[in-house]
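User: Show me a protein chain along with its predicted structure.
Assistant: Here is one chain, sequence first, then structure tokens.
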Amino acid sequence: MGNGWLKAKEVGGQSKHALNRWISYTMPVIIAGLVGFATWVFVALVCVNHLLIRQERKGTAITLLVIYFLLFLLVSSAYLRVVWAVSISPGFVTKQSTDSENEKFLGSVESCSDAEIGLGGVQAEGWRRGEEAVHPPEPMTIAGNPPENVAESLPDAPQSGSAKGAPRPTLSPAHPNPSLQSSAGHGPSPENALGSRPYSTYGPPRPQTSAGYQNLDEWFQRDAFVCENDGLPRWCVHCQLWKPDRSHHCSELQRCLWRMDHFCPWVGGVIAEPSYKFFYQMVFYGALYCLFLIISIAVIFRQQISDGGNQDARWAACLALACVFGLFSGGMASSTTQLVYRNVSTIENLNYKTKVYQLALHDPNAAQTPPPGQQISAVMPTRVWLPRDPGPGQRQRCFAIVSTQPGDNPWKLASTLENFKEVLGYSFWDWWLPIKRSPFEAKKSGKGWYRWNEELLARLKQQAGITQPSGRSS
């Protein structure tokens, strides 16, 4: 009975996603028809027939027509740019290849610590506490040099349908030098000052074979990235790929997208990184367009009624549509402005005030031996050396696993203006014309995929004891 219910729920979910996709295919056509109707009513019936021919108010008619076509051009071009982006370049994360189809991970559950709730967040902590109650964590160790035997056997794949991942080895074994071990090595270490927890031997699903652990160099060469408890990035069991920062899996498209915002049937697809700027411009200009129609038609309609003229139902229909879509586009413009101000997507904003992110921070001084007699605090976060099994030409780098405080946003920039520039562009014309794409599409090398909140990152590094190597400027 339980299996039947789960299958029925899965079929229902698939039907819902399929319905959303079909609606999204027809909505652009419906929108085009509604805008065409509004154009015909306002231009032909209101401005030409009523103002220009009947009342001979040429100046008023020409002024209204110029403003209308200016707003029409802006909103229609922004809408077409959104439709083009979601259709041609939706922002899919490239799938990593494996050696063969047999080596793909066949898990049927998603990581409980997906970015919708924040890595290291409330839901992630739930499965950590549950696992640690059964499997106490190993004592936390802090090391100044990489351990000699970092490469461990790869984890076994979890059984299909299991709610938890398979056991995997701890990545920070005790260092051969006892002086570098944590002073809290006589039992499980308490949660440290950064909110980072000692390793659990269980965790979210992972690939089954070594083929799934390829293509991680891009993460390990960066100064910081969002990670799981073992220091590795998130893994999407549906797309079979490691998920970059701020990427999410779309149920309608069954793909992971860069900085996915939401599925929008009104534009025929998913608003994500390539289309986000144009969507913001579309709802902003759409609100102005509807407001202009509402004010213009309402004023002229009222004058016509006062003069004892006939009430045209087509005017009333156009006014009603303008009110409905004006409320919708105005609300979307207001909420999107708030998201841009915070530098978050709609998904990231779901639990903005409580979200906790877990980050892997590169420690450039990890290979240097601490001075004799230096004591390493027990509240220092765990260090891991990645990649775990370095191949030819690869060099291991040390990362500290840290967590932000609830509500901290690793990508909120220093000023409101900078947050808006990151979305809309760095010139005046980029802000108002839907031509160039957002600056945050340019993936940063070295530090991260997106610009970091430097103040927050500096604080986390300081608390984690990460300093610049000697002879190198900060």
